[in-house]
Amino acid sequence: MTQAAHHEYTVRPATPADVDGARRVMFDTFCNEFGYGYVPQWHHDVVDIKGTYLDDPRHLLIVAVHDGEVVATTGVRSQGPNHPPHPRWLAERYPSGTTAPLVRVYARPDHRRRGPARTLVGAACDFIADTPGYECIYLHTNVNIKGTEPFWRSVAKEVFDARTTGEHGPGIAAVHFEIPM
Predict the structure, then answer these.
(1) SS3 labels along 69-126
(2) Is 62:1 a contact under the CB 8 Å cutoff?
(3) How far apart are CA 104 and CA 166, in angstroms?
């Protein structure tokens, strides 16, 4: 993947110099948006961004940079959804190795609705299409965050709305999506 310009943003694969800025965007999202902070079993990749995203050729972290600061992120990993907490059928439908989950699609609040997330997701999908072995693109999102549900519905197809079953527990409004390859 090469660097791309988007009016105010430079969108490119993360480098070691971007790790701290990307981690700040992610931790701020966990604490300020999700309200539950860092959860080791869910967020281990954020502690080891270099090992998870930069050192594995099938994984990627893409950043949007504005005025020299990382303001948005999107990751690709080859690990499908885990059961639990997700339903068994979902984990079986999206197995690790052949599934390319989009993860850590986060933008600082003052940069939302300005285009970097859509550009990041497009770049991630291009990477997935060019990486051998991937058969589908999957993601889940917390639709309690303003703007996430309409954004994902504009680029992806709903597979499962966990709000209807309460499978993720109280306060977590997870909806699972697939993006055509």
Answers:
(1) EEEEEEEECCCCCCCCCCCHHHHHHCCCCCEEEEEEEEECHHHCCCCHHHHHHHHHHH
(2) yes
(3) 22
Identify any residues that bridge with 23 across adjacent strands, giving them in sequence order.
none
Distance separating alpha carbons of residues 65 and 6, to the nearest angstrom = 10
Inter-residue contact 142 to 164 (CB < 8 Å): no
Q: Model's pTM, two decimal places?
A: 0.91
CA 25 to chain centre: 12
Token duo for residue 41 = 């079993």
Report how far residue 176's alpha carbon sits from residue 139's, in angstroms, rounded to the nearest whole number: 6
Q: Encode pLDDT of 9-56 as tens digits.
A: 999 999 999 999 999 999 999 999 888 888 888 899 999 999 999 999
For residue 124, which of 13, 8, 9 has the smallest C-alpha distance? 13
> Across the beta sheet with 136-142, what order do the strands follow?
4-6, 9-13, 60-66, 69-76, 99-107, 136-142, 174-179, 157-161
What are the structure tokens assigned to 30, written together?
Answer: 């966990």
CB atoms within 10 A of CB 54: 18
3-state secondary structure of 173: coil
Contacts of 46 (CB under 8 A, 6+ apart): 23, 26, 27, 38, 104
